[in-house]
Structures are given as C-alpha cells and as structure tokens.
Amino acid sequence: MMFRWDGGFIMVSWDGFDEGVEWYTHHFGWTCLDKVITPVGKKAFLQMPKAGVVTLKSFEGDYEHFLNDHGEEGNVRLCFEIGDLERMIDYARLNKIPFSTPITLPNGMKSIDIIGFENARFTVFENPSLKDTYPEAKILGFGEVNTRIGVTNLDHAVEWYTKNLGFIKKEVNHEMGFAHLQTEDAYDRHVLKETFYDNIYLEKIETAVKGNPSVRTYFDIRPDEFFDAYNMLIKNGVTPSQIAGDPMKGWGGFHIFDPDGNRINIWSYQMMREVYKG
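Structure tokens predicted for VOC family protein:
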C-alpha cells in the first residue's frame, strides 16, 4: 500500500486566520481562491504562482490531529520553490522576516528556512531557471524535493518508510548523509490519471526531536483504503492519532510518528468535494 505525496497544510490560530491569509497573499505573492468553515475548522485555499494550491488551516481543539501543542517544529520539512535566493533574502531583511543561513543540499540546490506568520517555518529551494519568470512573487510552488525528513539512522529509516508507507528506495549515500526515496504524486494519480514520482530526502541528524510543525506535509490514501491503512499501521506497531473528520463524508485525517519523532500526516477526501486538495 502506497501513501502518495499530496501537498499539505499551513497551520494558523483560529483568531489569526484572516490575518494569516492576508500575510501570505501579501508577502509570498499567493492568491486566495476561497475561504470556508468546515466540520474540522477554517480553511483557505492559496494558489501559488507557478503551480499548486496549499491550504491554510486553523488549529482545532476538538481533534487531537489539529491541536496546537506549541511543540518544536521538528525535522519534517514541506518544501517550496523560489526563483532567486538573494532576492528572497533581501525581501526578508527589508520586511523583518526571520530566515536561516543558506545551505546546499546533496542535489546541489541552495535552501533556506523562512519564518512566516505565527512562526511557521517554510523551507525553500532556489530554482535559478525561474529567476525572472515571476518577479513579483516570492514562493512560486512546491519544490523539486517535496519533503525533507531528518533521521538518526538512514538504513533503519529507509526500512521503516518503505514498509509502512510504501515508499520506493532510490539511493542511500552514507558518505553524504542522505537517502533518496520516492512516492507517487496523489494529484497526478487521481486527477490526471498519470504516474509521477515525488522526491523525499531522508537526512542524517545526530539528535531526534518529536516535532509538531506548523507547515505540514500530507500523504494521501483513498477513502476506500483509509480504514484498512489505519489498521495496517497499528498491526505494524505504529500508533496513529485519533481520526479527525470522516473521509467517507468529505475529509478525514490522522498522524503518526516515525521512530525519530517525525510527524507524518495522512489525509483522505472525496474527490468531487475537495477541488483544491485538502
């Protein structure tokens, strides 16, 4: 059973929801397609300039899955793409937006973390080929590397992700301290009826942290497989959270933690209702 990469949520407080929409449309150059209140909280669907929609989602105290426990961001990063790293840094400095020291990943891409509204951490990669394509926008879409996950043991982590989430092992490089995994893209599979593989990087770290990131990667499982997948994880010794919502009536989701405390989010939804993903 394969859990397919499907974008994610940017979490925000209930009271700060509208201000969060304004912040992301102003600073990142995104367009708000719609704002709704659903049985699992507030959602805003934000269109990115190049491609893709990401959902701003309110924390919701009625569900374990949407609690704001004010924990650490952790070592799971949903990744985005920018065209010009220096332009992004200059903009962040001018607008007093915190950012990290740039790093270079094993694939040669330059990356930084940017701290968004309510201290949400965004990881972005530079794609120089897009430098002048969207001059007014800051974050253009999801990245070529879709998700980065920090793990203390590459081999054990590869085994865990291939067994429990059905990911495909492409490469393990102990010298460089990373492993390259792939999984299918949910949108391509379910909407376009095509097969496209997204990239997951496992990165060697020294210390594990149990994280609760505000910018959350989600993996999709179809409603007719949802409860079988939930029970399969339990059978494999993984402890899922309680289920929020109901995928048979619209949207449902839960999360698990890998052995390093990395939070992995799973959702499922009815295609005719969830036009925007999530």
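The CA atoms of residues 71 and 204 lie 22 Å apart.
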